[in-house]
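Supplementary Methods. Inverse-folding protocol.

Structures were first reduced to a discrete structure-token string of length 147. This string, shown here, constituted the complete conditioning input.
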């Protein structure tokens, strides 16, 4: 079963305790994507953008988005792979090739959140508006093609 995990302070489903615990005594929770409450899409979708979450900032400009160079994107993708300690040298090489091929094909951005939790909504709106602007689902602008 596919699951999406959340930290204790998730508020996507109303209250922090609205989702089941992964393990008793642990604060992480999960959302089963088994078709009950939620499900994965049956259709595949192209990956257009990857957003990397940076450290919170006191800067008045935060939240803000910064485009990443391909080099920065590759380094962040490598740093954010999981369970790579279980991979053989050959598997790690295949993973690195996949990352090196992915980075130039998608837009990679870094989102820097504000350290002020009251600005969390601004960050969500910034990501949403950027994603909609990049997607084919965005409202077309007269005289221009969407996506």
């Amino acid at each position: 079963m596919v699951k999406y995990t959340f930290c204790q302070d998730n508020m996507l489903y109303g209250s922090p305790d609205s989702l089941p615990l992964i393990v008793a005594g642990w604060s992480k929770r999960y959302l089963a994507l088994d078709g009950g409450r939620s499900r994965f899409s049956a259709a595949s979708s192209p990956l257009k953008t990857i957003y990397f979450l940076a450290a919170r900032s006191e800067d008045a400009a935060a939240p803000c988005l910064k485009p990443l160079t391909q080099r920065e994107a590759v380094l962040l993708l490598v740093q954010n792979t999981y369970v790579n300690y279980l991979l053989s040298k050959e598997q790690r090489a295949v993973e690195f090739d996949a990352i090196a091929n992915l980075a130039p094909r998608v837009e990679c951005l870094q989102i820097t959140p504000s350290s002020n939790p009251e600005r969390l909504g601004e960050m969500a709106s910034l990501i949403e508006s950027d994603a909609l602007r990049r997607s084919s689902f965005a409202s077309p602008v007269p005289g221009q093609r969407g996506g």
